[in-house]
Design a protein that fits this description.
By secondary structure, this protein is of the alpha+beta class. It contains three helices and seven strands; from the N terminus they run αβαβββαβββ. The strands form two sheets. Strands 1, 2, 3, 4 and 5 form a five-stranded antiparallel beta sheet that branches. A two-stranded antiparallel ribbon has the order 6-7. The protein starts with a helix and ends with a strand. 23% of the residues are buried.
Amino acid sequence: MSVQSFQKVAYVALGSNLGDARKNVLQAIERLQAFSERPLHKSSLWKTTPVDCPPDSADFVNAVVALVPRADETPQSLLNKLQALEKEFGRTPKKVLNEPRPLDLDLIAFGQERRVTADLVLPHL
């Protein structure tokens, strides 16, 4: 990717530790293609141990994708789409901090954008 295209790349971290976590992440990656002007760049899947989660939480299946947002996309509009996709996969409002979830999508970077709002921090730390 050129430096110019790097400025338009968004990175999304995916995670799941409820239900068929591997299948959830793979299906979510397929769905994220609709948000990108170009083919996704995808990491491999990896398994991680839950940190600061309720006792007996299952391991997470994680991945990261890089996508090229549509020309009119903003960080907030992409975040809204990611949250809608989480809901489609059965995500409900949190009752317990870091509770198990069928899908967690974090917008971790959107080009060179820097912002801190109540629902979005870029780059995500």
